[in-house]
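Hallway conversation turned thread

IA: we were arguing at lunch whether anyone had actually written out Retinol dehydrogenase 11 end to end. Turns out nobody had. So, for the record, here is the sequence (211 residues) and right after it the C-alpha cells. Reply here if something looks off.
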Amino acid sequence: ERHIHILINNAGVMMCPRTLTEDGYELQFASNHLGHFLFTLKLLPKIISSGPAKIINLSSAAHHMCKSMNLDDINLEKSYSSQQSYFRSKLANILFSRELVKRLKDTEVSVYSVHPGAVNTELSRHLSSPLWKSYFFLFNFFTKTPEQGAQTTIYCAVDEKAASETGLYYADCKAETPSAMAQDDGLAKKLWDLSLDMVKFIPPWPFGKSS
C-alpha cells in the first residue's frame, strides 16, 4: 500500500496583472491558496492513514504587509493591487494551516507554514515596472539560491524537534511569530468555509463547513 508522509504545497504566482481563472477566481488567490486547499483536502484521507505525516504550506513574510483579507470582495473587483493580492494569498496560506491544525487534532498529522526567504527564482517574472526592476536588481545581491531557500522546508520535513510541533510559522529553520491577522482564529474559520464554497467540495467532518 502506498503512503503519503509529507505533502509540500509550493506552487505559486506573484504580483501578476489581474487575471481570472477558468472558474472565475482571481489568479493569485486561486493559485497560491485555493489550489493547495483543494489538493490537500482530497489527499487528507490518505495522509491521515499514513500518519505520522506532515503538511507544509509555503507562505511568505510578505503576509505581514497584507492590509485586509477582504473576504467580501475575494476577487478584488472593487480595487486591484497586484502586491496586496499576493500579500493576501500568503496570509491565506497561514490561516489555512491554522484552521487545518484544529481539524487534525485527533490525528498524527502535523502542519507547518514556511517563509523560505527571498529566493532568486522565476517567481518575480511579473515585476516589470522600472521601480520593481531596480529594486530586484539590488535585491538579487541578497537573495538565497533555491537550495538555500529550501532549507526551512526541509527542516520542517525531517527535523526531530519540528516533528513534535504543529501549527507554527517558520523562517530560517526556527519558529517565528506571524502577523496578528495570521493568528485570527475567527478569520481562519471564515476563510475555510468560503474556500469550501469556492472549490465546491464537500469533505467529511471535521473538514467540512463550520457548524
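OS: looked through it. The first strand starts at residue 6 and ends at 9.
IA: good, adding that to the notes. The first helix runs from residue 27 to 49.
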